Amino acid sequence: MKFKRVLIKVSGEALAGDDKFGVNGEMTVGVAKQIKEIVDAGVQVAVVCGGGNFFRGRTGGSIDKPTADYMGMLATVMNGLALQDSLLSIGCEAKLMTAIEIRDMAEGYARRKALDYLEEGKVVIFGGGTGSPFFTTDTTAALRAAEIGADVLLLAKNIDAVYSADPNVDPNAERYTNLTYMDIIEKDLKVMDLTAATLCKDTGTKIYVFALKEEGNLMKVINGENVGTLIQ
Description:
Elements: E1 5-10, H1 12-16, H2 25-40, E2 44-49, H3 65-89, E3 94-98, E4 107-108, H4 111-119, E5 123-127, H5 137-148, E6 152-157, E7 162-163, E8 175-176, E9 178-179, H6 181-186, H7 194-203, E10 207-211, H8 217-222, E11 229-231
Parallel strand pairs: 1-2, 1-6, 2-5, 3-4, 3-5, 6-10, 9-11
Antiparallel strand pairs: 7-8, 10-11
Helix pairs in contact: 2-3, 5-7
């Protein structure tokens, strides 16, 4: 097996599926099944959920940027709860930990406790972003991956790899198999935000971009099959 401990960034859109908004139960269970498959194979798994299927932090109108970002953090907790329940429903132990304290719904984030859960074979879901506004869930994923010593940060996307342009718009877009951190920054490839990419570069965290919606793809990534783009 190529990776023993991974952090998976699952976008809110991935959990919404074709519904585009909210949580699609079938899609979420499908994600949970792929996660359980690699957990059963002995991989330690942490997850960061996005919140774009409910709310994105934004400016404008009567809501200021920090408040909008806090609303987005709550959206990630909603997705974390949904994924946790889906995992539990198929017999996979999971713990939701949040950067913002919500005692009745989740545990507060504590690095050493998270590591203990991973060692016990439990899936650890990180919700609530970093707990501070102005940081995206990409940055949260890069930060938590470094904190837990993940072998790789897996970016589950709706497309199967990194391309030079949107392949749905440009049929001549180049598909990349291998890239460097600097390629992401210099080519402005929109894989993740600049803060997250720089953090991965500084901590040496490998990034692998792939399509989670393809059944069995997560296990293929763990086994080292070429189904996406490796960034290192």
